[in-house]
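ping. complex inputs:
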Amino acid sequence: MAEIYELTAHQLREKILAGQVSAEEAAKSYLDRIERLDPTIHAYVTVDAEGAIARAREIDARLARGEQPGGLCGLPIAVKDNICTLGIRTTCSSKILENFVPPYQATVVEQILAEGAVILGKTNLDEFAMGSSTENSAFAPTRNPWDTTRIPGGSSGGSAAAIAADLAALAFGSDTGGSIRQPASLCGVVGMKPTYGRVSRYGLVAFGSSLDQIGQIAKDVRDAAILLNAIARHDPKDSTSAPEPAPDYTAALEGGVDGLKIGLPKEYFGQGLDSEVEQAVRAAAAEYAGMGAEIFEVSLPHTEYAVATYYIIATAEASSNLARYDGVHYGHRTSRKGDMIDMYSRSRAEGFGAEVKRRIMLGTHALSAGYYDAYYLKAAQVRRLFRNDFDNALRQVDVILCPTAPTPAFKIGEKSSDPLAMYLSDIYTISANLAGIPGISLPCGFSTDGLPIGVQLMAGPFEEKKLLRAAYAFQEATGHHLKRPALTP
Amino acid sequence: MKITAEMVDYIAHLARIELSDDDKLVFSGQLESILEYIDKLNELDTSDVEPMVHTLDISNVFREDCVRPSLPPDAALANAPDRTADSYKVPAILD
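pong. complex structure:
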């Protein structure tokens, strides 16, 4: 008989609606497990046990009155700590916001609360979402539940670890260059970045405004679809929110992949790709062929320029977005005496970690007079070439299949002294953010060390339904998503 | 491209981040190697390519210019490092 925390979100929802499990029992099951395991995993920055239980009781009361609290009825959900939660500390895993309590609610949080969700707490990330390992958190790294000497990936490492270790039923992450998909891959869970504009960014602390999207980290594909249903709609508070109506992503998950054209980009299978990852991903393609899909080779010729392009655009946008942390209205202010400029410079020097400073400096340089044309403008031009590459490839095939990350999870500390080596681990995920298209990572096997390997699917703008259908077919045929790390509570 | 100490000083000043001498040394080395890597973009001829800053084909997203409830002053000031009843307190701007 499965423990409550072992259930998927859709299984748990069924039990809550059937009256077999109360929302309070569900919340306590997860909170109890968090208390036992999170001292080791450190998935959470803030756990709101009191708030979660109070909220769960409220949901139970509504159920008792015969009401239907919503599609996420009683589900305990973790929220990445760069998403503003009204009244709950939101730190972005940075000292500069260590005590910041948002006076407003992010739209996605409002949306899940309107569907009856229960918020367990805020998960750890690389500071301001800048990183690929969660080692850049100002509050200690999160550990990969499959091997606690290794990183969970980043920047949504806390959310991915929480799902892998059954410390939440569902989780939000954010993805600017792969920050949902890569940690999902390294932690053996499902992670999806929707099309740019599909989900509101209102309340997501901005890093790269033309790249950022909030998305789902989940135990399986149906769970990812359920969460997407709650958040995929136009938001008048976000002027970059797409007007496109959203379908029911849980309908027709079982459609199968007969006749689906799948393209493997040849540039994604070259140097730098771990041989076990390559093997697992090619096996995934063969699995799809066995289900009736047609496999083709495609080309995304500008792939080798992805990391360079991203690190100009993302850092340039970050340097602008992080200018607001100046010690004036909120966040850390230096206690050293000086004038206004001193106040800004010292507050920022004291509050930001090294990676954040590095990226702000890079972005500031790329936008400065005399360098703007050579860097930012050039990168924006190359960005269009990425979009053209995907448009061309997606005229030939329906879905692109490739690795999510070049290697399984590496050891804590292994890449943290070489920023460029860390940046290169985003090579397969970055292009989707540059082009604005959706991508999903799902578990496709394990390395000989027992570390999860993920396969990534990408499709055209607003084709999340197609992606989820393809992902669901693979999941049902293989069952990798059913494995859980061996953790002693 | 070579990143000189003067350039690091200038960038730090633009970014309003105070850097120690050690910081400057470490950052100049790291920025230099990252920028060297980024230089590979110059291999591409983009002379006829329209820059792409936004991936969505929407523009001029407006709303009606009417007053709506917004953040009350106390909520806005709640995280202030230093405040009066209705203002943020900061060091003098003018001498």
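Residues 52 and 58 of chain B are 13 Å apart (CA to CA).
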